[in-house]
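Sharing in case it's useful to others searching the archive later.

Someone asked me privately for the predicted structure of Alpha/beta hydrolase domain-containing protein, so I'm posting the question and my answer publicly. Question first, with the sequence:
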Amino acid sequence: MAVTTLNIKTCRPFADGMTFGEVGAYQQLEGTVHLAVDPNHPRSTGIADLKRATRDTQGFVQCSADFRILQPVVPGRGNQRLLLAIVNRGNPTVLTNFNSADGRLEPGNGFLMRQGYTVLWCGWQDDVPETPGLVRIQVPEAVDADGQPLTGKMAIAFQPDTLIREQLLSDRSHRPHPAHDVHDPNAILTVQDHEDAPPQTIPRQEWSFARLQDGRPVPDPTRIYLATGFLPGKVYQVIYTTTGAPVIGLGFIAVREMVSFLRYRAETEGNPCAGRIRYAYSFGRSQSGRFLRHFLYLGLNQDEQDRTVCDGLIPLVAGGGRGEFNQRLGQPSNSNKYSVKNLFPFHDSVQTDPETGRTDGLLRRLAFQGLLPKVFFINTSAEYWSGHAALTHIDVEGKADLTSAESVRNYHLAGTQHGPGNLSLTDTGSADDARARHLPNAVDYRPLLRAALVNLDHWVTEGHEPPPSLHPRLDTGTAVAPEHTLTTFQAIPEVSVPV
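And my answer, the predicted structure tokens:
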């Protein structure tokens, strides 16, 4: 059944009615999509705890997600392409990437609009806070055989920028994971000088599950309190038992079925894009790019009627990672160094992990189905240092270059940082009071993203081959061990190796 209703709450002119060349004006639709998911459907069996989720009287699992759509006011002026823009921690960021816009819903240079794209954002992350402007999903919890909430161990890590005495039990101030028992004697709090330093346990009697109220700590299952304060720069981790396990993997089903609905369903079924969509692509940057890698890994690019969902995908600056997007008690925003986002497999083709003996590949399921989409894996130099990007084209032992599937391209944007740079150089971030030691990279790679989307579209619709993969290789000596690079770096006069 999947999508049952699409409730459009608002429809208004986009960008105050601005026109974009021959395509003309755009409209912005916002609302909620409601889904009924069959937990026994073969296209959904890979979703963790789906069969434990609460069901309606017909045996379906209900969930709902926020959505936004930008589309030409005049249907015939669009290019019949849908771009699914995976939201990043609830933030709709695609216009800042392709249109070089300053704000999330500002037109910027109008690139996507002048091309005629229909743009879709659909909520997929359950723990995103209920903040105006964010796009999120509402999912049921998994329960045990008696219908009771599940409990399990949770690890929350944080690194404050300033001295604080209390901390929300969540990642990035998302919806917290409450402690099952605020007096739990087995809960553990540790502190490290950095992620690779040995952890030191803070005695249980020195901290509590509490918040400050009128200057005094009061019990609170959603926060931890340390009288002496959490020191800036230190890495803290609290391990405790929590209650409640949302079926977070339903986020994959929501975006899949939303694209399918807009692409294939009729106007009489409530589809505002009926007859407008012939091809569908998807883009995600950073966390959202890892979401797309995970989507591909689970083999979810077919809907419940076995129809193709996305013809092409661009996971940007995702490195070799996936994420905590489909597991019990997962934290989708978690970007800690030691987390499941950095697990095998990394490359699109099948290989064997020498540590576990496991054989797998990122696109193994889709290859078995015979429905490989076109994919551009694009990374910057930052992902080679901290995101395992090399493992997307070098074997896990670091001994051989790997060959990707014919439908895959792997590009390295050399000399660039994780996010696009600009010439308004500052050492202060916009989200907090943290300051960098040096100014950031000023290279803006967004023109290359626009070129990548055009190339992907030509590949899908006309069969025009895009440029071959271009990235560091062992056989050319352009991929070298970090130790070699650091040794060379240290030879530069008056330059020290970053810590």
